[in-house]
Amino acid sequence: MTKRVAVLYGGISAEREVSLASGKQCMAALREAGYAVEPIDVGGDLGTLITALRDARPDAVFNTLHGRYGEDGCIQGVLDWLGLPYTGSGLRASALAMDKPAAKAMFAAAGLPVVAHRLVTPAELEIATHLAFYDYEAKYADGGSIHTLPAPIHPDAAAEAMRVALEAHRALGCRGVSRADFRYDDTAGEPGRLVLLEVNTQPGMTRTSLVPEQAEHCGIAFPALCAWMVEQARHGA
User: Fold this and answer.
1) Which residue, among 97, 69, 106, 68, has the nearest Cα to 176 in the 3D structure?
2) What domains can be seen in the chain, in order of their start residue?
3) Taking Cα atoms as reference points, which of 20, 121, 131, 138 lies closest to residue 70?
4) Residue 174, Cβ neighbours under 10 Å: how many?
5) Which secondary-structure segment (H or E) carries 9?
6) Which is nearest to 181 in space by CA: 210, 219, 224, 145?
7) Beta-carbon count within 10 A of 188 CB
8) DSSP string, 94-155
């Protein structure tokens, strides 16, 4: 029997457009992988979402929501309540990963490489610039940035990044796919120094996103990656 998968996309966060792109790409890949796909464009009415999920009666939910409500434990709690298995991390790991000071405390407790920090309010920053930076266009537009695979760093640093990424994933209790972000400093010579910044439990799945690109580099086609995520789906912490 064909497995039914409800794909949640859109949402009401500032990252809605990215989620729409992620969702459409994942839906196409899941259909190619042989799943029956039920698209659910998530808006601001929770009752409507619950009704759509109950009507769809999915075997699994593929979560491509980004930002607030989509990756902070909120939608994960709703899906846990409904008893629906879903892709990605559970409520607790999702909430921890979005709370950057809490996540950093977990990383430090696990002995992972982090740096000292200080919490500031938006008023304390007063940062403004007209200069281009690594913005939305650079991240998501075709040709907006250059991704080099494998990274041109010392092999020992690459191995350490893999180790720390896995340990950070485990420290937060993540499951499925996550993406660890680092800063790398080799100004004092190789192999250089790595600093763990964060773990993203809902990384982008657009055509220009890092996770699909890295999977392809490892020989995993996008439909196979999406299928693996569905087969790993479950609910609960």
Assistant:
1) 97
2) 4-89 (3.40.50.20), 95-220 (3.30.470.20)
3) 20
4) 23
5) strand 4-10
6) 210
7) 7
8) HHHHHSHHHHHHHHHHTT----------HHHH-----S--S-HHHHHSTTSS---SS-SS-H
pLDDT in tens, 139-194: 556 666 788 888 889 999 999 999 999 999 999 999 999 999 999 999 989 999 99
Q: Which two tokens stand for residue 190?
A: 């190789």
Any idea of the CA torsion for 79, 80, 85, 89, to the nearest 10 degrees?
90
The tens digit of pLDDT for each residue in 114-154 reads 998 888 887 877 755 555 655 555 555 666 678 888 888 99
> Is the link from the previous residue into 150 a cis peptide, with omega within 30 of 0?
yes
Quick one: which H or E segment has residue 78?
Answer: helix 74-82
Give me the half-sphere count of Cα atoms (radius 13 Å) on the Cβ side of residue 50.
Answer: 10
**Cα 56 from chain centroid (whole Å):** 24
pTM for the predicted model, two decimal places: 0.90
Listed residue (86, 120, 110) closest to 202, CA to CA:
86
Tokens describing residue 44: 């601001």
State residue 116 phi and psi, 5-degree precision.
Answer: -65, 150
Q: Which of 140, 225, 209, 213 lies closest to 177 in space, CA to CA?
A: 225
CA distance 155 to 217: 17
